[in-house]
């Protein structure tokens, strides 16, 4: 029942990565929660399982479970980590990751000033129709009719998972631990939502803090950064390229004319280990 794993992170958004391409890995909600527990398990924001791809154009399928055990369709930082792992394994500069949100192409970008490997991922098209996010009823997604405390007049975006972005004067001052879960579970969001407090610092810089559904406040959220950038572009608040400053560091974003969002940032491998049978038993 033991399984090898790799602990990886993108800007502190951390993952337990299990390679199940050769030997299947049965993982249910409870087992994912045990692994993700920071006191009794390994500890992570998401458990990632690499599986054989169904699409012939993909190198692997990436399955994602949040710390609460629930499966989700997209995770930008995890996509960069898995892509880096596959590229290193095959000695290539590109990778194609299959997810429930679609095929996500990735490539080596460069190395940062600290020498960290950086990977660019095409996160696919941003979806802004109320049915695609989804919302419980028809609304103008540029002005969501939902609020909690200082978070109001939000923007809805789907990056394969639902996001609500709220622009504020000071992102640091927002009590996200209080208002994040209230908005995450608002009836407007039938699949719950990731909640972001975004502060426009300059025409090409956004300060962002994110409450992730099923996880809580994280050091970084890749799809949250994409959603905040798209929301800011839709409101005319930033330029065509921007840096999103998260608690764990910076991501660089571009929204192409075809609607696809490109995200570039660092990836890191922390350590490897073995999950024991008590953790992984489904």
Describe the structure.
The chain has 2 domains: 3-107 and 268-280, Diaminopimelate Epimerase, Chain A, domain 1 (Roll); 127-258, Diaminopimelate Epimerase, Chain A, domain 1 (Roll), CATH 3.10.310. 17% of the residues lie in helices and 40% in strands. It has 5 helices and 17 strands. It has helices spanning 29-36, 76-90, 176-184, 222-234, 277-280, and strands at residues 3-10, 13-19, 46-51, 60-66, 71-72, 94-99, 102-111, 117-125, 155-158, 162-167, 194-202, 205-212, 216-217, 241-246, 249-255, 260-266, 268-275. It has a 17-stranded mixed β-sheet that branches. The model has no long low-confidence stretch (mean pLDDT 96).
Describe what is shown at a glance.
By secondary structure, the chain is of the alpha+beta class. Helices cover 17% and strands 40% of the residues.
SSE blueprint:
Elements: E1 3-10, E2 13-19, H1 29-36, E3 46-51, E4 60-66, E5 71-72, H2 76-90, E6 94-99, E7 102-111, E8 117-125, E9 155-158, E10 162-167, H3 176-184, E11 194-202, E12 205-212, E13 216-217, H4 222-234, E14 241-246, E15 249-255, E16 260-266, E17 268-275, H5 277-280
Parallel strand pairs: 2-3, 4-6, 10-11, 12-14
Antiparallel strand pairs: 1-2, 1-17, 3-4, 4-5, 6-7, 7-8, 8-16, 9-10, 11-12, 12-13, 14-15, 15-16
């Amino acid at each position: 029942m033991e399984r090898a794993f790799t602990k990886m992170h993108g800007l502190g958004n951390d993952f337990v990565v299990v390679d199940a391409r050769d030997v299947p890995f049965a993982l249910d909600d409870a087992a994912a929660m045990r692994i993700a527990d920071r006191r009794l398990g390994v500890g992570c924001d998401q458990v990632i399982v690499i599986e054989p791809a169904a699409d012939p154009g993909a190198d692997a399928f990436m399955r994602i479970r949040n710390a609460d055990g629930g499966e989700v369709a997209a995770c930008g930082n995890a996509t960069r980590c898995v892509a880096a792992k596959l590229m290193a394994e095959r000695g290539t500069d590109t990778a194609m990751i299959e997810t429930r949100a679609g095929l996500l192409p990735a490539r080596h970008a460069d190395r940062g000033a600290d020498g960290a490997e950086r990977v660019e991922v095409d996160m696919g098209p941003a979806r802004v129709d109320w049915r695609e996010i989804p919302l419980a009823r028809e609304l103008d997604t540029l002005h969501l009719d939902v609020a909690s405390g200082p978070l109001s007049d939000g923007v809805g975006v789907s990056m394969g998972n639902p996001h609500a972005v709220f622009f504020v004067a000071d992102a640091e001052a927002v009590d996200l631990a209080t208002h994040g879960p209230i908005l995450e579970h608002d009836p407007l969001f039938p699949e719950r939502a990731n909640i972001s407090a975004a502060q426009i610092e300059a025409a090409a810089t956004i300060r962002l803090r994110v409450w992730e559904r099923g996880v809580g406040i994280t050091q970084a959220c890749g799809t949250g950064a994409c959603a905040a950038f798209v929301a800011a572009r839709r409101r005319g608040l930033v330029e065509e390229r921007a840096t999103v400053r998260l608690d764990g560091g910076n991501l660089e974003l571009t929204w192409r004319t075809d609607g696809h969002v490109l995200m570039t940032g660092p990836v890191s491998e922390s350590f490897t280990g073995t999950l024991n049978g008590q953790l992984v038993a489904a």
